[in-house]
């Protein structure tokens, strides 16, 4: 949208021209995608609340023209780099994945994520763009300062959409990653697919489905999209599947026995390595499934607890920043607390974090006894809750009390909740 006036007109048309209460108008505007960001909506709400909340769209248009002009100026100030960043040169485009732990629970449970080091050499506007590889998966794009862990930005991407985070960054080191939101798995467990066959002569052959899966797996772990797995990439893969990093001698053995190019393991070499692994485990295929389960795949080889993504970084000047793969690591400790305490202090011990494709309700237990969070979502429209059972929050602890996603991202949805912290009996 070029101006807030255009945004207002678009939202009014989307609502069928009927007068909208301010809360409705705000929610409609959030669904506009390219209209306003959550930060901008919060700024608009602050400006309007300071001068009286308009009860309808008509009053807003007729009686608050000065506020409209005032906010258009504020909106321009909120995006000083928008025009320049649209044409900003690309610093890097990389791949990654997020893998939820099988033992964890909750929408934002324990997980391993590809993390990146963003080095900013001089003050510059930077744009981070996250594109999920699989539809119907919700990912959070996170940016924090490496020195003190201060969370600088979080946005969401879902259902084939993308997440964009624009920030003016000072010189220093930053960490970028994406986290996967866990959704309840209500489907029945599918039958286990066959990974290989053994002919009468004892020769082991990988099935077409498993071979295709390995090729996709190779591309998922080729973080820099170079066409090969570097030692660091293969070591990160091996650490998740075998529990240990690749040592010098082991990497030398890989290079001597499997196809490599420019010092990196090729796709053909990666598939051949797994062929030998299948031969070694022909009598115990469960060993292969242990690796696949650790990587977040189900018995049908479909991604159950894993999601791939593409991360693109742009900067005002290409030489002002550098992005490098830092490896695969757990989400930082205390992430939920940083979400809850970021910006304003949480009201009554909880904070609602509104993103483009998700609403997070984070509860901080400020008391001396354990509590459970009870979140009433009965007045929400067009969205689905991911938390079925209220979490237990210990004293001074923090928990994701509820996570709400739209039923259909292309349809309007609204969130109206109440939150209570009740003693844990």
TrEMBL record:
Provide any one GO MF term from the record.
Answer: calcium ion binding
Q: Which residues form a coiled coil?
A: none
Q: Where would you find the membrane-spanning parts of this chain?
A: none
Instruction: Quote the PROSITE patterns the UniProt record gives.
Output: EF_HAND_2
Q: Name one GO biological process term.
A: positive regulation of protein localization to ciliary membrane
Residue ranges annotated for the EF-hand domain, each copy included: 209-244
Q: Which InterPro entries match?
A: EF-hand-dom_pair, EF_hand_dom, Miro-EF-hand_domain
**Which keywords does this Swiss-Prot/TrEMBL entry list?**
Metal-binding, Repeat
GO CC annotation: ciliary membrane; plasma membrane protein complex
Highest taxon, organism lineage: Eukaryota
> Which PANTHER family does the UniProt entry name for this protein?
EF-HAND CALCIUM-BINDING DOMAIN-CONTAINING PROTEIN 7
Name used for this protein in its record: EF-hand calcium-binding domain-containing protein 7
The beginning of the lineage is: Eukaryota, Metazoa, Ecdysozoa, Arthropoda, Crustacea
**Gene field:** Efcab7
């Amino acid at each position: 949208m070029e101006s807030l006036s255009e945004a207002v007109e678009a939202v009014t048309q989307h609502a069928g021209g009927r007068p909208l209460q301010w809360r409705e108008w705000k929610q409609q505007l959030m669904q506009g995608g390219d209209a306003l960001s959550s930060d901008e909506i919060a700024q608009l709400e602050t400006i309007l609340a300071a001068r009286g909340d308009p009860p309808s769209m008509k009053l807003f248009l007729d009686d608050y023209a000065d506020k409209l002009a005032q906010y258009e100026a504020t909106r321009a100030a909120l995006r000083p780099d928008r025009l320049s960043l649209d044409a900003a040169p690309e610093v890097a485009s990389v791949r990654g994945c997020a893998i939820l732990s099988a033992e964890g629970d909750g929408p934002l449970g324990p997980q391993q994520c590809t993390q990146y080091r963003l080095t900013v050499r001089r003050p510059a506007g930077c744009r981070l763009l996250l594109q999920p590889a699989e539809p119907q998966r919700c990912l959070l794009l996170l940016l924090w300062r490496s020195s003190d862990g201060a969370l600088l930005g979080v946005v969401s991407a879902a259902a084939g959409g993308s997440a964009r985070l624009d920030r003016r960054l000072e010189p220093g080191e930053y960490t970028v990653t994406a986290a996967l939101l866990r959704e309840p798995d209500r489907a029945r467990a599918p039958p286990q697919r066959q990974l290989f066959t053994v002919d009468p002569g004892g020769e082991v052959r990988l099935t077409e489905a498993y071979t295709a899966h390995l090729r996709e797996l190779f591309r998922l772990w080729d973080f820099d999209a170079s066409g090969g797995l570097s030692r660091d990439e293969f070591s990160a893969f091996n650490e998740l599947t075998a529990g240990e990093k690749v040592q010098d001698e082991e990497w030398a053995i890989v290079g001597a026995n499997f196809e490599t190019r420019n010092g990196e393991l090729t796709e053909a070499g990666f598939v051949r390595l797994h062929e030998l692994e299948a031969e070694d485990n022909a009598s115990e295929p469960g060993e292969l499934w242990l690796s696949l389960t650790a990587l977040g795949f189900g018995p049908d080889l479909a991604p159950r607890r894993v999601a791939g993504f593409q991360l693109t970084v742009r900067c005002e000047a290409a030489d002002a920043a550098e992005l490098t793969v830092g490896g695969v690591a757990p989400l930082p400790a205390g992430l939920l607390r940083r979400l809850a305490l970021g910006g304003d202090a949480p009201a009554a011990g909880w904070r609602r974090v509104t993103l483009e494709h998700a609403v997070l309700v984070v509860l901080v237990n400020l008391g001396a006894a354990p509590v459970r969070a009870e979140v009433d979502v009965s007045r929400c429209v067009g969205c689905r809750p991911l938390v079925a059972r209220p979490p237990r929050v210990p004293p001074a602890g923090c928990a994701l009390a509820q996570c709400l996603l739209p039923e259909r991202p292309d349809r309007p949805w609204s969130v109206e909740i109440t939150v209570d912290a009740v003693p844990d009996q």
